[in-house]
Design goal:
By secondary structure, the protein is of the alpha/beta class. The protein is 45% helix and 15% strand. The chain has one domain: Rossmann fold, CATH 3.40.50.450. It has a seven-stranded parallel sheet with strand order 4-3-2-1-5-6-7, with helices on both faces. α1 packs parallel to α4 and α2 runs parallel beside α7. The two termini are 14 Å apart.
Length: 211
């Protein structure tokens, strides 16, 4: 309960915000690190706070890009036995013991999800967001996959298995956009919200209260 309360109090005024995900294992000289840093910098300069997991790899890249931009860099750190260490590029830093509380914070305060290549944790965040949007347990938002080559096999499998066997609707895949360039991510978010603004609509606010 304390993690929910502290997270809500510290993040409530940081809007609009974009949650970014990706592998913790990307080296600073890797293309995924560079993609994450550049995307986050453009988002920050466009006025979006950037929320990441606070750790190394793409999480660090996301925080670093935002840290040197206009809007805040937010890190939602998690206590893990290995891999997780807090990166130094955080204007706002929270620490969680419980994954479920941390995951609620990623969704509750996100205007969009930007998902870079990653492992189980990245896929977990991606599919949780898709499930909650699909079932209308959170508001619809842009969910952007960065890197067509990386995501192509997964998307083929979703179409060839889940859609083909009737486990999801073909329209459910419209919840995803696949992009390659950082500026495309910024543009896609603005296009989505240009006619309605970034603040949750009344019915969305009610959904978020019960997330």
């Amino acid at each position: 309960m304390a993690e929910f309360v502290e997270g809500t109090e510290r993040l409530a005024g940081i809007r609009p915000a974009v949650s970014m995900f990706g592998t913790s294992r990307a080296a600073p000289d890797s293309r995924y690190y560079a993609l994450g840093e550049r995307t986050a910098r453009l988002l920050s300069d466009a006025g979006f706070a950037v929320i990441s997991g606070g750790g190394p790899g793409v999480m660090e890249a996301a925080n670093k890009g935002a840290f040197f931009g206009r809007a805040p860099a937010v890190g939602l750190n998690i206590d893990l036995p290995r891999e997780q260490r807090a990166n130094p590029y955080q204007d706002v830093s929270l620490r969680f013991k419980h994954f479920f509380a941390r995951k609620v914070m990623f969704l509750k305060f996100a205007t969009a999800y930007v998902v870079l290549p990653g492992g189980f944790g990245t896929l977990d965040e991606l599919f949780e967001a898709l499930t909650l949007v699909q079932t209308r347990k959170t508001r619809r938002m842009p969910i952007l996959l960065m890197g067509r080559t990386f995501w192509a096999g997964l998307l083929d499998w979703l179409r060839g298995r889940l859609v083909a066997e009737g486990m999801i609707e073909a329209a459910d895949l419209d919840l995803l956009q696949v992009l390659d360039e950082p500026q495309q991510a910024v543009d896609a978010i603005f296009v989505y919200y240009e006619k309605r603004g970034f603040e949750p609509l009344p019915e969305e606010r009610e959904v978020l209260l019960n997330l």
